[in-house]
Amino acid sequence: MTPVAKTERLMMLPSDQDMSGRTFGPEERKYVEEVLASGTLTTTKGKFGRLLEQKFAEKLGVKYAYACTSGSAAIHIAVAAVNPNPGDEIVTTSITDMGALTPLMYRGAVPVFAEVDPKTLNVTAKTIEAVLSERTKAIIVTHLFGNPCEMDEIMALAKERNIPVIEDSAQTFMAKCGDKFAGTIGDIGCFSFQQGKHMTTGEGGMVVTNDDAIARHMFLYINKAWGYGDANPDHYFMALNYRVSELQAAVALGQLEKLEECVANRQRTAAMLAELLKGIDGVETPMIANGSTHVYWKYCLTVDDTKIDGGSVGMANLLKEKNIFSAPRYIVKPAFMCQVFQEKNTLGDSHFPFNLARPEAVDYSMDKYPATAKALHDVLVLPWNEKYTEEHVRYIADNVRIVASKLRK
Questions:
Q1: Ramachandran bin of 182, using left for φ above 0, alpha for ψ from -120 to 50, beta for the remaining angles
Q2: pLDDT reported for residue 101
Q3: CA 116/CA 149 separation, integer angstroms
Q4: CATH code of 320's domain
Q5: Is 206 helix (H, G, I), strand (E, B) or coil?
Q6: What is 329-372 written as a DSSP string?
Q7: More confident residue, 247 or 409
Q8: Are residues 166 and 266 in the same domain?
Q9: CB 3.0–4.6 Å: which of 326, 337, 370, 385 could bond 16 by disulfide?
Q10: What is the CATH number of the domain that holds 160?
Q11: Roughly what angle, to the nearest 10 degrees, separates helices 26-38 and 246-256?
């Protein structure tokens, strides 16, 4: 496959922030209208919340799935299920969203950041092992951009140390690690239905597990620890209301029915782009672990600034002129460099839970994370969604090649 002839035309790419890049249609409208006609908007009495959970569990082949209000809520629920004591440590990735970190602190756990592989931007068994301690209560692995972590090695390490694993699969719907879906390999999987995800309700999430005891705790935590269905229900422990509404569940059900097609479209066009970008010196396409499949929440390039003048930033600036709005370096800085971590700004002036931590566990200095710095320096995150066509892909490929040629050192 070779690029089409170069052109100066401008194209507008589909965006996952509006209908141009989303798949809403008669299915979602039908379900929402049914909810409104019923007059029942709470999932404690309606049918769509339960139906969504049942169908989601069936899709992934797990015993339990529970809907919740966001991906951040999903992480909070998962952390609550492993029930850390104040000051316990949870190992997580150095490159993640703040919404995957604040739930740890709200539960009194201390985030401990593992390094990443500079090519995949994912944690590895080796980087996780380097920061484990006697205080480690759980490991959170984030499958970044739709590209799964190397789960065989990570699970072997976790089982050897008897540490539960939480998978942050917010960006990794239907990705496979061997014969299993990402999110179903660890003890708990967490998903997000935020606007730009593979399936969306604007905001929303899901937690999944095969463990009966964990499932019970997560169900209760979503419901203020009220024992719905119990013979003598009570509020058994401190918990929140993380329920979705029937309206969200209705939209999610319509989206779930399209999920496999959505993922297949992203994979098909991503494979096309990888082929079109072959052979560009200084620009690498995504690296995928053996036996895994990538589902392309975004499409990431690695840009070598010893060969491309200005690196990822230089390329992004020129691509923007062609309406390709990429994100050089993904995030401005790792979350642990944000003020909340650097100044330990949590509850009042207590600095909780950092005041309970080992000093070395909360040494959040950038010089401890050279691979993270390298990964963020080199990465260029291209927008991606299921509405891309061959024409869109060729447009992106042509312009990446043109920009790389212009910036060649």
A1: beta
A2: 97
A3: 10
A4: 3.90.1150.10
A5: strand
A6: TSSSS-GGGSHHHHTT--STTS-TTGGGS-GGGG---GGG-HHH
A7: 247
A8: no
A9: 385
A10: 3.40.640.10
A11: 150
- Same domain for 325 and 196: no
One-letter amino acid identity for 299? Y
Q: Indicate the pairing of strand 205-209 with strand 188-192.
A: antiparallel
Measured CA to CA, the distance from residue 205 to residue 99 in angstroms comes to: 12
How far apart CA 14 and CA 194 sit, in angstroms, is 17
In which residue are the tokens 């330990």 written? 344
- 3-class SS at 250? helix
How does the average pLDDT of the chain come out, rounded? 96
Domain count, the chain: 2
Contact between 325 and 317 under an 8 Å Cβ cutoff? The reply is no
Task: Give yes or no for a contact between 399 and 280, defined as CB atoms under 8 angstroms apart.
Answer: no
Same domain, 171 and 233: yes
Cα–Cα distance list, 378 to 46, 78, 315, 353 (Å):
48, 32, 11, 33
Quote the CA–CA distance of 154 and 26 in Å, as a whole number.
42
| Tens digit of each residue's pLDDT (9 = 90 or more) over 372-408 | 999 999 999 999 999 999 999 999 999 999 999 999 9
Return the beta strands (E) in 145-279 as ranges. 165-168, 176-177, 180-181, 188-192, 205-209
Contact criterion met (CB below 8 Å) for 81 and 217 = yes
Find the Cα–Cα–Cα–Cα dihedral 97, 91, 106, 73, rounded to 10°: 50
* Arithmetic mean of pLDDT, 345-357: 97
195: Cα within 13 Å, side-chain hemisphere: 7
Q: Is the pLDDT of residue 7 over 80?
A: no
3-state secondary structure of 230: coil
- Token pair of 9 as six digits: 């035309």
Express each pLDDT in 56-78 by its tens digit.
Answer: 999 999 999 999 999 999 999 99
Inter-residue contact 183 to 169 (CB < 8 Å): yes
Provide the pLDDT for residue 8: 66
C-alpha dihedral over 126, 129, 130, 135, to 10 degrees? 160
**How far is Cα 196 from Cα 171, in angstroms, rounded to an integer?**
9
Residues 159 and 42 in one domain: yes
Per-state percent for the chain, helix, strand, coil, to nearest 5: 40, 15, 45
For the whole model, what pTM was predicted?
0.96
Region 142-155: what's the mean pLDDT? Answer: 97
